[in-house]
Amino acid sequence: MSKNNSIITIPLTYTPPYDWDRMRGYLAYRVIKGIEYFQGETYYRAVNITVAQRNYRDIISLYHEPLANRFILSLPTTLYHVKSNLIARVSHLLDLSCNPQPIAAALATISRHTNNTYQIGTRLPGCFDPFEMSVRAILGQQVTVKAAHTLAGRFAATLGQPLTTNHPEIDRTFPTPATIVAIPGRIEDTLGPIGITGARARSIAALAHALHNGTLSLNYGADPISTMAQLLALPGFGLWTANYVAMRALGWRDAFPHTDLGIRKALPGLTPKEILALAEHWRPWRSYATMALWS
User: Fold this and answer.
1) How many domains does the chain have?
2) Residues 193-244: pLDDT tens digits?
3) Residue among 58, 95, 254, 260 flagged as catalytic
4) Which run of H or of E encompasses 145?
5) N or C: which end of the chain has fewer CB within 10 A?
6) Does residue 257 belong to any structural domain of this protein?
7) Does residue 173 lie in a domain region?
8) CA pair distance 30, 39, nearest whole angstrom
9) Can you tell me whether residue 275 is helix, strand or coil?
10) Is 95 part of the annotated catalytic residue set?
11) Please, what sign has the CA dihedral across residues 269, 274, 280, 285?
């Protein structure tokens, strides 16, 4: 770790290879306007973390140094007291703990069943904020990535907390569960005017209440089976959304949304039941198999 005026830089290493082009492409296509953005190879995002009843809000950045097998996390000194929290979140987002070799060995047979192959170094896109990612997943149900991108930007613009920065691309932090819980009246009346359907609005509200009152945790490493059962009990959550949240928020490396349209297109001629049976050969790395099939 080094300090330069008001900026702290922290190197975060990984086990090579790392397919940054694929990870960058995945994340860049899903950035939420006003919250995060890429400038060249550098990723910037707003931070809103509360620790010990103290709130920390500012911007961090990430830059890849492939020759050194590391990323450089840069943060202002205002976030110094939550640097450990930030390191954990960024490590999860970028899947820095991954060991590519055993995964590549286990998924070498994918190309027998599809035109896609597993590229060694493919990482599992995690998340920085599990509520943010889960809202994005709800908004992405049965719509294009572009449509979900638009809705997520509107959601953040409507309910996010303004943030003054020297980055014009970032002007707020993402709404928290507490923000949603505090909305008076019907959630549909707030989200309907920005194009979010009543069903999705109610799903977001139910998720926010469960996280806010502590009956649900989406922390990295939480038990995926019990968490998925809790998610499936919420309105509007099906197997696809529950698997996707388990994969990206919990970091579950064996999630497999077998009903996903992209997976079915990659494995033509197979029923969802047959796809699920085939994927048994890819345990415990089915999340990485999913990334290969989506490619």
Assistant:
1) 2
2) 999 999 999 999 999 999 999 999 999 999 999 999 999 999 999 999 999 9
3) 260
4) helix 145-159
5) N
6) no
7) yes
8) 14
9) helix
10) no
11) positive
